[in-house]
Every structure is written in C-alpha cells, then in structure tokens.
Amino acid sequence: MLKTLIKKQYQECFRSYFVNPKTGKRRTKGGIIGMFVFFTAVMLFLAGMFFGLAFLLGDGLIGAGMQWLYFVLMGILSVLMGAFGSVFNTYAALYLSKDNEMLLAMPIPPSQILLTRMSLVYGMSLMYSGIVWIPALIYAWIFATVSVQAVVFQVLLIFLIALFVTVITCVLGWVVALIASRVKNRSFVIVVISLVLFAGYYYVCLNMMSILQKLLMNAEALGEGIRVWANVFYQLGKAAAGDGKAMLIFSGITLILYGICFFLLSRSFLHIATRSHSESKKAGKLSIKSKGASSALLTRELRRFASSPTYMLNCGLGIVILPVMAIFALVKREVLDAVLTGMGEMLPWIGTLLPMAVVVIVCMCSGLNAVSTPSISLEGKYLWILHTLPVSGKMVLRAKLRLHLWLNLPAALFAAVVLGICLKLEAVTILLCCLFILAFLWLTGAFGLMLGVLRPNFQWTSEAMPIKQSLNVMISILLGFALPILAALGCYWTRNLLSAEAYLGFVALLQAAAALGLTWWLNTKGGAKFETL
Predict the structure, then answer these.
(1) Are 365 and 415 in contact (CB under 8 A)?
(2) How far is Cα 408 from Cα 433, in angstroms, rounded to an integer?
C-alpha cells in the first residue's frame, strides 16, 4: 500500500509533463520529451551558476588546505537552497492536498499518508539541494585530490543532505500549519513568512561577492566558529573530506532528527489536516442580498485572491516590490542623482528618456502581477456556482478585471510618482507617466482575462498548475515585459521627432484603444463564451 501511495504521489507531481492539463489528454512523445528537455536545461543552468560559485570558494579554500571548510560552506548553501526551494510547497503538500479526506476515509493509517507526503518533500529537497551539492563535488573531483573513501561519502551525502533538508522544511511546514489553524487570516501569515524568506534570499544574492570576500579573509576564524556553534555542519564538512567518524556522526544526527520529526508530525497530522481542510471550505462565500451584484462579485474575487498564498505570491509580488523600490529610490536619492549626472555626461540624450525609465520600471514590475489571467481557471469545479447565480458572464468578467486594476494601480501609481520626483520630472510628465501605466494595466489585465476565457483549464489538482505552470500566465507576463521595452525603443528611435511627453501620450492612447477593444470583446463575446464554459 505504501509503495502504491508513493507512486501515486509522484505521478500527480509530474502529471503535467505527461498529460496536457487543459485537455486532460496524454501529450505526444515529442511533447513529453520537450517538457523534460526544458526542465533539464533549467536545472543545468542553475547547476552551472553554483559550479561558478564553487570555483570562487574552492580556489581559495582548497588551495589553502581547508577542503573541509569548502564542503561546509557548500553544504550550508545546499541546505539553504533545498529549504528555500521546497519550503513553499511543504505546507500545501502535507496538509492541503485535495485527496486528504478521501485517503483518511480509507483504512489507511495517517502515518502512512504522512510518510507518502514526506516522500514528495524529500524528492523536492533532493532536487534543490543537489543543484548545489553535485556541482560542488564535480569541482572538487576535478581540481582537488580526493580519496576513494571521500568520494563514497560525498555521494552518500547527496541523499543525507536532502533528508536533513526534509526535516527542516517539514518542521517549518508544521509551524506554518499550526499557526494557520489558529489564526483567521492564515494566508497572509504564509505570505509574510514567504516574503521575509524572499527578502533574505535576494539580500544574500545581491551581496554575494562581498560575503565571499569576507569569508575568505576570515576563513580560519569562520571554521572555528562553525566547529563550536554549528557542529552538525562541521561534521558534514569533515565527512565530505573523508573522515569516517564525522560521517557516522552526521548520518546519526540526520536519521535521529528525521525519526523525531516523523513521530511528532504523525501525532498532529490528523488534527491539523482535517482542521485546515474544514476551515478552507468557509472561504469564498457570495452574498448578493447585502450588497449589489457587482460589489458582491468583486468582494468574492478579492476573497479568492486573499485566501490563496500561491495566488498572492505568484500574481501579486510586484505589488510589494513597487512601493519598496520607490521608497529605496527616495532614500538613495543622492546616489541616484550622481549616477544620472555621470550618465548625462556620457550620453547627452539620456535626459529626454527619463520618463520612459519610469514607465518601463513600473510596467515591468506590474507585468509580474497577472491577477486576471488565472482567475477563470481557478474557478475549477466550483464554476457551476457562478452559472447558477443571477449574474451575467459580463458581470463576472468585469469583476475580475476590476480586481486586477484595483490591486495593481495604487502601488504602480505610487511608484511612478515617487520615481518621477526622484528623477526631477515635471508634474505634467509624471501625470502622463501615470496615464501610460493606467492604460498598460488595463490592456494587460483585459488581455490576460481574454486568454483565461479562450484557454481555461479546470482539470487541475493543485492551484499551482493554473498559476505557476500555465501557458496563459507565461504569455501574459511576457507581454508585460515586451510592451514597455518596445515602447522604450520606440521613444529612443523617435527622440528627434517627438518629445518624451508627446510620445508617452501617443502610446498611452494606443494602449487605451487596444484595451477598450478587448474590454468590448469581454463584455460581448467573452461574456457569452464564459456562460457556456
């Protein structure tokens, strides 16, 4: 039974590689090969990046005879990457799977269901941590002297590190589930935690070179600190260097921690899984009696957005990035002035394109917020509820488009005004930038909604499929990137014919006209088609 459950879990995870989620039909052999080739290319690209990082660390540490410290640092990075890559899916994989109720109703012990879920978490941890650890091993095998025993230990550590990461992510998932089961707005708790992790991740990425320099300059003190305060990683590094005693210690610690983790989670799994599931059914109620139909539909869409951490994080990240970026530009205004002065001396025409810099930055960040695009597919099996209500398809689509604009406009306009002030633009120019951005958001929102109506996907088992693995969302985001870039190129090519203000107004009118045409389609043919879905 356990083998069957694990097989089912992995089949569901990789189902989109074999089955078209839109049609429910099996992909052709060429399509399956193409999906796996793309996946492999992405993994190889990431592995190449970490091989370069291993080269930077290994060149200094292995050359100085501190091979164990090299493996310690790469091991820590491997654990962090594994935890970062899988922690966002752990909570949902353990406690929010759609078939939890069905499996719990069967004569299957909850511990076996938990072990099945944890096996998928282990697989994800193995993939993400291996992206770092395997390139580190390849570098050591090429450029360092490694014993046969060390090679054996290093290969075994691939699987042990993944198990260590599984413990960390399962504990974090359990904490999030425990908090979520005791607070009302659990989705916002998950989003806040995720944003903190994102911020830490990008801080490390942006300061990677300075961090590496400090590490290499204080390698001995760092090694001693790790030996005292993070002994488990010290044992990891020594084991990778070929120390048999350290290998036994690290293996024992990892296995013991996994056993304790599984024991504690199995005692609370049934309670949290059933409580989380029962509470999730309360979301998304639609009351037309207390307010107008349009307001009720908009409220329903807002609740749907706010109830899904996956939806908010993947289709609303730009809403957080824009005000943070604007405030950062305001704080660093003197540095920005110095950079612009230097660029103005090298490129005299750069000043005429400053308005386009505002709209390109704001529009590209807003382009990440494809709120309207997956909204049709996310109705899923509850689409029939909308069809039974006394509302037209046009009203439903209008509510989805209004939510897209209401969520995106405040952050985008705030960022445009602040950036315009930082770049010392005239008030009229800032106003034109805001009109350009308004037309852009209207156009991309309507276009994404049209894609949702024309290419809906209701056959999903996880909401991540229509949000993160959707061609519609990819096309919408690419359009959000392409339009401002093309607009900037057009402004550069016509800089001797039109002023930046005239060009902004002209392109804003073009976007508004296109958005108006798409909105007309949504109100007529799109609304009628939605009623037949």
Answers:
(1) yes
(2) 15
d(CA 142, CA 528): 63
pLDDT value at position 280?
44
96-103: list long-range contacts, CB under 8 Å, 24+ apart. Answer: 96/276, 96/277, 96/280, 98/461, 98/462, 100/273, 100/274, 100/277, 101/274, 101/277, 103/5
CB-facing half-sphere around the CA of 405: CA atoms within 13 A: 17
Output the CA–CA distances (angstroms, integers) from residue 399 to 104, 371, 435, in the order listed. Answer: 37, 12, 22
Residue 147, sorted as left (phi over 0), alpha (psi -120 to 50) or beta, turns out to be beta
Predicted confidence (pLDDT) per residue in 29-57, tens digit: 888 888 888 888 888 988 998 898 888 88
pLDDT at 404: 94
187, 306 contact by CB (below 8 A): yes
The pLDDT value recorded for residue 505 is 92
Instruction: Produce one character per residue of 145-158: b if its CB has 16 or more CB atoms within 10 Å, e if not.
Output: ebeeebeebbeebe
**pLDDT on residue 75:** 92
Would you say how long the chain is, in residues? 533
Cα 184–Cα 190–Cα 194 angle in degrees, nearest 5:
160
- Tally of CA atoms within 13 A in the half-sphere of 291 that contains its CB: 9
Helix (H, G, I), strand (E, B) or coil at 4: helix
Whole-structure pTM value = 0.65
Contact by Cβ (8 Å): 149, 244:
yes
Q: Could you write out the DSSP letters of every residue in 30-69?
A: HHHHHHHHHHHHHHHHHHHHHHHHHHHHHHHHTTTT-HHH
Specify whether the CB–CB gap between 248 and 90 falls below 8 A.
Answer: no
What DSSP line would sit under 317-374, residue for residue? HHHHHHHHHHHHHHHTHHHHHHHHHHHHHH-GGGGGGHHHHHHHHHHHHHHT---STT
Whether the CB-CB separation of 61 and 67 falls below 8 Å is answered with yes
Query: Residue 439: which of 527, 518, 521, 352 has the closest Cα?
Result: 518
Q: Please calculate the CA angle 422-426-432 and round it to the nearest 5 degrees.
A: 100
Contact by Cβ (8 Å): 309, 89: no
Distances (CA, A) of 359 to 2, 98, 131, 442: 54, 42, 36, 14
Nearest CA among 523, 470, 370 for reference residue 16: 470
Q: How far apart (Å, rounded) are the C-alpha atoms in residues 391 and 374?
A: 20
| DSSP one-letter code for 523 | I
Task: Give yes or no for a contact between 97 and 145, defined as CB atoms under 8 angstroms apart.
Answer: no
Spatial separation of the C-alpha atoms in residues 450 and 13, rounded to whole Å: 28
What pLDDT score was predicted for residue 184?
A: 59
- Counting as low any pLDDT under 50, the low residues of the chain are 276-290
Q: What is the pLDDT of residue 513?
A: 96
Quickly list H helices, 354-497: 354-367, 383-388, 393-422, 427-454, 464-468, 471-493
